[in-house]
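B., you asked whether I could sanity-check this one before it goes into the benchmark set. Here's the sequence:
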Amino acid sequence: MSEKMHPAVKKLKSDMEKGKLSRREFIRYSALLGVSAFTATQMAGLAFPAKVFAGNIKMGGSIKIAAPVQKVTHPAQFSWISGTNMLRQVAEYLTYTDGNNVTHPYLLKNWQASDDLKTWTLNLRKGIKFNNGDDFTADDVIFTFKQWLDKDVGSSMKGMIGGYLDANNIERISDHQIKLNLNVPEIAVPEHLFHYPAMILNHKTFEGDLIKAPHGTGPYTLETYVEGERCVLKRREDYWKKDNAGNRLPYLDKIEFLDMGTEMSAMVAAIKSGDVDMIDFSDIGGAEAYLALKNDKTVNIYPATTNQTRILRMRTDMKPWSDNRVRKALKLCQNREKILGLAYFGEGLLGQDMHVSQKHPEYCPIDTPKYDPARAKKLLAQAGYPNGIDVNLAVGSGWQEIVRYAEILKEDAKPAGFRINIQTMPNSQYWEKWTEVDLGITTWAHRPLGTMVLNLAYTTDADGKPAAWNETRWSDDEFSKLLTQANGTLDVEKRRKIFCKLEKIQQDRGSIANSFWINVWTIATKRVQNIKPHPSLYLKLDDAWVNG
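And here's what the prediction gave me:
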């Protein structure tokens, strides 16, 4: 093994051999430190997965996917996944985190981290072109980074990476090499580069709207994009990637995304009849479709366990949620087992009022709060509401599990004195105002590390301004200091000890409640081959093909 390895890899291997670290965790962290997945897998004593035999593949053909075709402008401003599932076929990312949460180089050839995790060298692949013929170089990457870090763009990437990276600390070494000089240590840089708004832009043509200049390095070109109707992608003939037999990707000639509204029954009927080949569940819950199709012999179902959840969030800068007693009272009104059973058919895990899942590697075991409306009523009285309180709860109507969550909460919160008025609206309308409503339920996607979502949603900048995705405006000095410490702590056991404190703070005085974490499914007709399920429900279709 000739790879130059970060000195911490030896410690990780020792921890794995002592049973402190699972093989999967060893592979994940070694990959983050720049070890190839192949080498890390060998070091873990496992066989690397065999590649698909290219002789089975059929070139050409097309597929149709039911998906909401929403408004798209600047990729860095994405706050939902469906749009990225369409445009990730056109524009690409520096890295790729697979369904096992292992991060690989993509537009990057590789990366190296310094011993102190404060200097990251990014080596770009050579010979890649944008679909308009422009060369892909370091200038495009630096331009994209600066878009992320521009406060006027308002990207969630600023909340994720802005705590450790300033725009003036991005160093251009050559046409295909960049150095990031961080303010503080950070282990998850490669995973951050696959956050879904992190598409790499063409610095020569991008002026704020990817639909107007859809110039990416990806396998398809954008032919049509009509909001609320359809998105049509066509095969790119000069794409840079080839399969292991030397065939140039992609295999499909065309992909069409069709907006069929939010009624799951219509989408299920369409996949049964063959009118569509897949349903994109990234921004719509898939439990109903799974139950309807799980015994259907015409489809394949690919399950994935996730760190995805539905967050009951409260604006701490607005009354009554500025009073933690009111927040705690509402949290106590969640009958979690009932909510998971009725809202999502029991297909998930119970939540614990903090944004860290039992599946996150840093998770620290913590008690699950019990349904206690009597205690909630006392807290409301202490907060100045002895006769109860009227509140409005905003939800997107297209997420049936969220609507059910709200309806169950409404009934179970009555004994405590909460009189909840549920305000339903189309999902697109919810996304337009999701950070502005004082009380709402927001769907949050899977993140492989617990630190990632905490940085996205529960931090402020140096001036005290909330990060773009800090929808609750919550800020806690102790929490922020511990999170910064966790970001730079590689040792999983030490990270877990920090997370014991982070989780307790968020559960006790945080701004959110969550009743459940969900299982997800990718569902496709059997004519569609080589679909890879992803816990974030990302669609990667460069090497998918069709039979017939």
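One thing to flag: The longest strand covers residues 299-314. Otherwise nothing jumped out at me.
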